[in-house]
Amino acid sequence: MKRSKKIVLLAHCLLNVNSKIKGLANYSAHHVDTLKKVVEEELGIIQLPCPEITYLGMDRWGMTKNQYSYPAYRNHCRQLLKPVIDQIREYEKQHYEIVEVVGIDGSPSCGVQYTETGYEGGMVCCDDRNEPQTVRIEESGVYMEELMKLLNEAEISLKFSGIDEK
Ligand code: SF4
Q: Which NCBIfam families match (predicted)?
């Protein structure tokens, strides 16, 4: 059987940068270094759904973790991830290897090693503060936290890594 039986889970925008908030893109379509690695290592890909575009669409603002850390958004993340957990279970049952989960460091949703906190909301037009409002914190984003919890509940242990696109 000609298949590697190895799979990687990638944050959605690594394969489709168009899902990011407007104005934020360091590549035109795909994160090429990740794709090269995936091809070289003969990994199949599960592209995780983007939790932000499916929640707030393309007109969303840049947000921080404290803003997304809200039960309705966490529940949205879990609903998106449950079918992914089913797939992982099935692959593991069939003795396929899930090599790792790759997130986007700094993202309030998909950060793995770090994310950002700080925005307090309010009318954008009327905020005259000039100081940066966001602070990096050594925590995962909300989506990755929910993925880790669901994996834990399913007693599945996977490696996580985060790409710093800067
Ligand atoms: S939520 Fe995650 S997948 Fe969606 S654009 Fe942000 S980092 Fe990418």
A: TudS_rel_CD3072
